[in-house]
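Per reviewer request, we include the raw input and output of the structure prediction for the construct analysed in the revised manuscript.
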Amino acid sequence: MIDMKLLRELARLEAAGARLAIVTVVQTRGSTPGESGQRMLVLSDGRTSGSIGGGCMENALRLQALDSLRDGKTRISEYALDDDVDDSGMVCGGKLRVFIEPVHFRKPAQE
């Protein structure tokens, strides 16, 4: 399902001429906090909007998104959740595959 709040944020960022990366969960296996189709925007200054599940995994993928912005290349990344321990002390144990796409909006010309 498309997150309308995230789409509105994306439209605002487009109007501002922002540079960002879109991180999209494309596949999950096993127990994961995120679901296929979830998205997170990563701005060039490291701020994020939206979520792909949180925790260490989300921060690691945020860093990969910043690398993608630096080199302009898309990425497909897999993250294993066998080392992530949640607040209950339990390990998720699943895997996420994400697509990371750098986007550079151009500010519209002033009339």
